[in-house]
Batch of 2 targets.
Target 1
Amino acid sequence: MKLLPLSCVLHALSIVHAFRYDHLVEHVNSHQDQYVQALREWVSVESDSSDVSKRAELHRMMEMTADKLRAMGGNVTLVDIGEQQLPNGEMLALPKVVTAQFISDPLKTTVCVYGHVDVQPGKLEDGWATEPYNLTEINGNMHGRGTSDNKAPVLAWIHAVEAYQALNIELPVNVKFIIEGMEETGSNGLDAMVVAQRDTFLLDVDYIIISDCGWLSLRPALTYGTRGNCYFSAEIEGAKQDLHSGVYGGTVIEPMTDLIGILDTLISPSGKILIPGIREAVDPLTDEEWKTYQDIEFDMENYKNKLGVTELMYNNKVDLLAHMWRYPTVSIHGIEGAFSAPGTKTVIPAKVAAKFSIRQVPSMDPEVVKKQVTEYLEAAFARRKSPNKLKVTMVIGAKPWLANTQHVLYEAGKKAVKRVFNVEPDMIREGGTIPVARTFQDVTGKGIIMMPIGGFDDGMHSQNEKISRYNYLEGTKLFIAYLHEVSQIQKSRV
Amino acid sequence: MKLLPLSCVLHALSIVHAFRYDHLVEHVNSHQDQYVQALREWVSVESDSSDVSKRAELHRMMEMTADKLRAMGGNVTLVDIGEQQLPNGEMLALPKVVTAQFISDPLKTTVCVYGHVDVQPGKLEDGWATEPYNLTEINGNMHGRGTSDNKAPVLAWIHAVEAYQALNIELPVNVKFIIEGMEETGSNGLDAMVVAQRDTFLLDVDYIIISDCGWLSLRPALTYGTRGNCYFSAEIEGAKQDLHSGVYGGTVIEPMTDLIGILDTLISPSGKILIPGIREAVDPLTDEEWKTYQDIEFDMENYKNKLGVTELMYNNKVDLLAHMWRYPTVSIHGIEGAFSAPGTKTVIPAKVAAKFSIRQVPSMDPEVVKKQVTEYLEAAFARRKSPNKLKVTMVIGAKPWLANTQHVLYEAGKKAVKRVFNVEPDMIREGGTIPVARTFQDVTGKGIIMMPIGGFDDGMHSQNEKISRYNYLEGTKLFIAYLHEVSQIQKSRV
């Protein structure tokens, strides 16, 4: 926060920078087809950061993002953040991080919008109803991989700046962008960049805004916490190549049997994590939290219907929300190296690697989790007395994040939501992980807010991901309004 | 077996049909490049019967086989065996079965060679060192999917007939062929065809010969038994689509956790099948069997080295061979529907199906096994009190087979091996399954022999499958010699 000398304030009042919200809204409404076209172009790029064979597309996506911001007159840099080491030892260039600056007045408040333009894997054969990389609008929903997570929100922020520019209204605050391309695999390389630019690019940033999440219901929400993500690979290797299960079955100790055996020790049927130390590290639920959760608008039946399930892990709202947001959980995602195609292959896979992750919560440390999981699985494997080889690796160790909901940023957020949607937002947490939130918090000490615009049913990470045209447009308006409300924080402090 | 009137025997003696073995061998040696080229053409067809998207290639493979046999003057029929029902309810045409007849004299003995030209799946990314469908010869080994299993052995039988034809030597016995295209997925439709043609095509067949297996060591072998194969799919379905593991993890009961839990009840770390009734159904090992196994040439160290493992499930030869051939085993092949690609996908898969199989042995009935497995898994699943849905399906139920090694066919086989390789064959069983063997036995009551020419290290069903040029050529010679030896059985009986 900067304290402005009175002379500056007087000068600022004399120039044209009125907040003509209605004009801005009109501009957004009349440009919606251009916005959809921009999203279509971005979605057409298969910027899957987890699939190294798609790396060229990811590089292209970063260049497109930089080009877009440059064309708007931003001061754009593509920041080299180095290489990643692949499991086979090879080095692969990370996608550059795009930074951009739209500085209308160095004396104004400066916000930095963080987003990402990489996406989860998406293949038609996974059960998509439409081509994942061909934006397809059905009944007001625009389907495509990466629409809601996170390309449309990033574009909405860009459109918000464009709208001010188009109407020759001075930006109420300076706006910076940090757009990365490795979020879906743990923001590899970004932490180091944030540390490196703390005293340069980030020095004059007052607040950081993240719009990489979704609402809980039809009611708009502000998000004040995320879970972390410790993503593991447990690989078991036996024979030097796959074997015919008829010819060799019964003579060899099969890696799949070993792997199933150790995976089955991770979590109980009722959802209890069985790894010693994990549950003990979790903060107890406070009465205040209980009250907050109790007050949140959340329809259990609606949630079940949306998912298409008859029962949930917990049958009351508070337990369910608590286990969605503030308790850790284990998910087993799949097994690499085993037979996964349709049909019948009679194979004993030689090397199989299970992928599973633990969503951890504020008082848990990824490095401790790594040790707990590794030792636990190694002990379970040792009990089997198998001659096969086990290798446990933590491939992502992203930290959770928790904000103070009394912060001025959240007060400003509530005002912006009220202006655009005419309701009070739900104050929610997010079960998923935005790895960089915690880093921004730890490294810069700046205020951070998460302001989602994704719908509760957008299907991030699943088939048929979408964002509605409504959320995309109203989200753009929300961001326009929020830039104004943030500028008012400064004024109220002056 | 036919009894010939004396006049016919005298007539037969007056025509030229001497067994000019040296000439035939010379012909084989001088035509080896043509044989390799024929194999190359067959291997180039991706006739994967388990992948329904490859069905057109499979049909083409059957046509090529028919064309080849027709060009040799065979009386060839493409037998329509109907359709198969896919898991989604759709019907798909089965590949036609090729039958062919080379009848030199209706009064002679008639053998019927069974083989198949469909293959296991094979993809470069599974770890093949060469393109699976591009025959590649390295140090005398010809690599390619389906080389040893079963295209080269089928071609070797064809070359054996061709050699007699080329040298104008009358075939010592009539030769028929039954070549199918669904062996790798359980010979769907073939059983019904065998039943239907029992009193027509199969009526005058005296013996059935199958060459769809491999030797145990460098020593040639004759095979007198196979295990069956009950191949299961256990599918668990939860939400109506995949979910983000951050957003939903902790609130839903995950199908993968359920599936891992029930799979872990199938088999103990020391290889014991835990499904009640399975082990009880197995015949006890007789002293005679023990002695037979004890005498077989089998080097445990060599076997371990070939597989690249430090320990086997049993550390003595008899136990190991017995569990390879005459005890059942469970193998878990993989999981369809879960995340199986490289990288990190944070997904809760909505519907996952484990593929596993039980190699069952002569006194076990597939229908009983199906019931035992289904009830056992359903009970294990019920104990979890999961709201998800479990569906257990036995997709293959192929029976085991056991022959009498004192049969004249085996005596003739030993003579042929002795002539070509100048050694006594090992008498072995096969851990894998040749589903039709048992059907031929049950339906026709004819004598059946398995005469392998595949090498012990051919890697059927695994990466880098191969057959050596040596085995391909010497195998052709073995089949040439065997046709002669079978004709001598008839003579000795007249």
Target 2
Amino acid sequence: MPYFDAASAAPLHPVARQALLASLDEGWADPARLYREGRRARMLLDAAREAAAEAVGCRADELVFTPSGTRAVHTGVSGALAGRRRVGNRLVVSAVEHSSVLHAAEAHAAAGGSVTEVPVDRSGAVEAGAFAAALDGNTALACLQSANHEVGTEQPVARAAAACREAGVPLLVDAAQSLAWGPVAEGWSLLTASAHKWGGPAGVGLLAVRKGVRFAPQGPADERESGRAPGFENLPAIVAAAASLRAVRAEAEAEGARLRALVDRIRTRVPELVPDVEVVGDPVRRLPHLVTFSCLYVDGETLLHELDREGFSVSSGSSCTSSTLTPSHVLRAMGVLSEGNVRVSLPAGTAEEDVDRFLAVLPGVVARVRERLGAPVAAPAPAAGSGPLVVDSLGKRCPIPVIELAKVIGDVPVGGTVTVLADDEAARLDIPAWCEMRGQEYVGEEPSPRGGTAYVVRRLG
Amino acid sequence: MPYFDAASAAPLHPVARQALLASLDEGWADPARLYREGRRARMLLDAAREAAAEAVGCRADELVFTPSGTRAVHTGVSGALAGRRRVGNRLVVSAVEHSSVLHAAEAHAAAGGSVTEVPVDRSGAVEAGAFAAALDGNTALACLQSANHEVGTEQPVARAAAACREAGVPLLVDAAQSLAWGPVAEGWSLLTASAHKWGGPAGVGLLAVRKGVRFAPQGPADERESGRAPGFENLPAIVAAAASLRAVRAEAEAEGARLRALVDRIRTRVPELVPDVEVVGDPVRRLPHLVTFSCLYVDGETLLHELDREGFSVSSGSSCTSSTLTPSHVLRAMGVLSEGNVRVSLPAGTAEEDVDRFLAVLPGVVARVRERLGAPVAAPAPAAGSGPLVVDSLGKRCPIPVIELAKVIGDVPVGGTVTVLADDEAARLDIPAWCEMRGQEYVGEEPSPRGGTAYVVRRLG
């Protein structure tokens, strides 16, 4: 049963499993104690820290283990902001950071701080110049992920780091998605990651803070992990995390090249096999194992269920699969289609056959979902109608507003407009994206007198 | 090799190990995902929550899993204080709470809040009336442990809870040391605990918040664990924690009775076998598996090393074994001897023979340490001297000041005084404790003109 959601959580690496089992016996005691079980635990902890620091590219005394990548980000952001409180209170983040960074930014804003979000282009990449321009004399910290977790696009970390150095601003790099594949480019001040993304166990994140970076941990502390991560160390899991990081790094070059080719196959074949698909994210500057595409006229949740029934586990940034009723903030920031969104992230060791079977199954699955939703199957016939058309999709969830738009576009004379009334947040993203894919003109939106929003589209051909 | 430090961390229970192994295979995926691996993880998480809630005595939706007992306490205290910010800003705690509670209290005070510490008696117990008296109209939260982690004394939780209900103040009970043995008395509002204390793995704590208790989680949050514990769930460890809690509870009555008898044996035999020992903590209202005693004229760190060489792992609240240079805050609050302090906490399954061997080995170990330190071996001879005596122990670490006091007391005429100059913090606790054990009068302390403190002792006999 192919599991294609490594970006959420990777299955436990065999090396991690082995290390975990060994350290359940050897590393359960308190490493702060003086007796032999404690000394043994301390040795395991020290060795794990050395190994993780080597993989990160920092000194062991710059790195602490946290209970998760999310906690590493929260601690890193709040500690760095507090450490530079006298300099300023601005936090600069890219618009496509992981939610843990954005939640930390929200908490900062709620406490009276200021937050600047740097936009991304349609590939999901920050423009380094724009990032540099956002740094001002009031900026306490900047955050930029090494690569995006939803679309795989790599960020210009080296150039952002140079700009930060120039501006005297520390840079926190969330390396959760890329650390398995290699170290982050030089120049970061703080770095965070999460073990279960690289085949380590849950319950372990890491936070590295370069010597010389002002850092003031917030909240109650204790003497563990240099006062940066209170609470009894999750030692067997830490040992397993460090061991598996070393193991995946040893395999990274070969496995990365193999998965990169499989992802290229998906990127090429999906638009050939499935009509009306947008493959998103940078095709070249990207993570080796991750690809995201969106299918017009498809409900993301149904698509996931159908793929699950066929044996494939993938995730989606469509609003229809989340409890928030809004599409993924990453897709929104990129301005790409969000309906029928599928993220495929291949775990190490993924079989080529499984990818091929996915490609074989996908077209039929998408077609079935579209058929059930009554999606248009052919390009619109030339119109004979007249006058401005209005489609009322109020109260209807994605992808229905786009489906209804597609159904009437044939009735619109070339040069004429159609207005779609919708109150589903996804329409704001998906109607312009549909226009771009279909070569129609997206005119704009205005409040609808009947509630929701009126989206205006001009037929060009 | 007998490990007698279960109160720090218990070795992994066989049931925990088994559950952990099984859920490494079944529970590594993200429980928030819709595909089968995610649904399976969600089922495991739900079942673990049900099991833990049953053991705690609350509803499943009142309980969240945290990365450690410490994090549960920090989250519980800050969330409850924030939830009642409009009522007041006072936090009431006992003086012998776990450091995680006291660290949370320090953070509260640093943020401008007010903290009241309720003292304990010489057994380590809070007096329920004094606890009730500390609750005022400005009190947002009160904290009382179920039983003390250093001396085993049970706290009057039921009476404290009644007083809190009366005053309309929520009560947080840190049940870390007692939850393995049974549920906490009714009446608590928030409850915290830590899995590695009951033979579960590291990396799991729990926080229960009763419905109706005002609670506002602080810091960045996400959608996991009801917004109270951000970050990817440490699922295999959570499953193991819940399974082992159920297992230790099934064994609690029989094993508790067996360990209680072993601890009684230690409590009775140690003062018979070793001269000049104070066994501390309540002899009856106590945890079944834990006993603490202090040995006059002994350096705690050396004692621990000697016991370790004999194969016994125990901990100590002596200042000489910690990096803080002050004795344990618990021993200080109780006003008992801190030098040569030993905490024995028996893990489930401790063999009777190991306890007997400990009792056989201890007298020789203590005698050797005393001999090396030049401690007095006999009661003082009647004095013939005259005039006030001064002992200069400035710059000397515990237990030297007390040893030097004991050596000269024989030179002091009955009714006369001796003054000990000392700058080791432990002397403040250990000189009065020595007086009580020796039937001499502790007159008091004053600043010493030569630095440090002058402790005055009157010879009574």
